[in-house]
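Can you make up a protein sequence with its C-alpha cells?

===
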Amino acid sequence: MWLIGIGMFFDGFDIYVAATVLGATLHSGFSTMHQNAKFISVTFVGMMLGALLTGFLGDRYGRRFTYQANLAIFGLASIAAAFAPSMLVLILLRFVMGVGLGAENVVGYATMTEFIPPQTRGKWLGWISVFVVSGSPATALLGTLIIPRFGWRAMFALGGLGAMLVWYLRKALPESPRWLESVGRAEEAEAILRAAEHEASIKQAPLPQPAAWPPAAHSRSLRSLLSPVLLPRMLVGATTLIVVNTLVFGFVTWLPTFFLREGFSIVSSLGYSLVISLGAPLGSALGALSADSWGRKPSILGASVLTIVIGSIYPFIKHPAMLQMVGFLLMIPIYVLVTLLFAVYIPELFPTEVRMRAAGICNTFGRGATILTPFIVVALFRSYGVGGVVRFLIALLAVQIVVVFLFGVEPKKRGLEQIDPEVAVSGLLP
C-alpha cells in the first residue's frame, strides 16, 4: 500500500496542481482564461493517451514495469514545467505530464486490486484513493504558502522531485502474481506467493489452505470486451468515469478561478479552495469504509443523489463562510464517487487477462470526454455563472444513476474469480 500509495499521492498532487497554478498564472498575466482551458484540455488528451497505452502495456509487459515508466514520465515533465518560458511551452509539457498521470491511475489501482483479499478489498483500495485525493488539500495548502512567496513554478518542481524520489524507492515493488500466472509464468508467481505466505505465517496463526476456484479460460483478445457479459460492464465503466472526471475537472479544479471571477483576491481564492478541498480526503475515507459495508452499487447511487442535492444548493450561496461550508459538504459525496469508481469498482469488473486494457479503455472514455469539459465550463460560466456549470453536472449524475442501477454488478466481499463473468455465467459459482 505504501509503495503504491505514495506514488499515487504525487499523481494526485500533479493532477490537482492545476487548481492553484492556473489561478496564479491568470492573476499574474502569464496566461488567459482560454489558455487555462487549453492547459486543462491537453491534460485530458495526455491522460486519455496514457490510460489507453498503459492498459495494453500493463497486460503485455506487467504491472511493475509499466508503473515505474509512468512515474518517471510525469516526474521528469513536471520538473521541466518549472522552467517553462511561456504558457505555450507549459501547455506542451502538461501534455507529457498527462500521459504519465493517466497511466499511473490505471495501473496503480489495477495492481493493488490483484493483491487484496475480497473481505477488505474495498477498504484497502479506498485508502489508496485517500492518498491520491490528499494531493488536493496538500496542493491547496502548499499553494497558499508557496505561490505568494515563490511563485507557481515551485509547485511543479516540488511535485516532480517527489515523484522521482518515489520512483527510486518503488524498485522494491513486486510483480502481480495474478498477472504472472495469466501469462504462464507460474513459477515466478508461486515464489512471490510463498514469500508472502511465509511472512504472514510468522506474524499470525498458520494460514488455511487456499480455496480452489473453478478455472475459467479467458481470451486475451480485445474483442472479448464486446462479449454479452463484458460489454455491459464496459458501459458502466465508461459512463461512470466520464461523469466523475467531469465532476473533478469541470468543477473542483476550477474553484480558484470561479472565486477570482466572483471578485475575491488571489489569497482569499486559494484559502477558500483549501477549506473546501478538505472534504476530499474525508469523502474518500467514507468511500473506503462504505465499499465493504454498504456495497459498491448502493454507495455509488447514494453518493450520486447526495451530490445532486447539495450541488443544487451551492450556486445560491453568496456569504463567504456559508460558501466554504456548503462547498466542503459537496466535496464529500464527490470524492466518495472518486474513490468507489476509480479505485474500487472499475478494476474489479474485468478478468485478469484483460483487466488493465478494459480499465484503460474505460479511463480513455472518461479522459477523452472531458477534453471538451474546460471549454464547456468556460462557456457556461460566462453565460450562466456557477449555476450553469452545476446544472450541467447534475444532468450527468442523473445519467450515471440510471446506468449503474440497470447494468451495475455488486462485487462486495467476492473474490475476483467469483466476480468473473465467464465463471458466473457458466453456473460454476453461485
Remarks:
- The mean pLDDT is 83.
- The CA atoms of residues 352 and 405 lie 25 Å apart.
- The chain is about 75% helix and 0% strand.
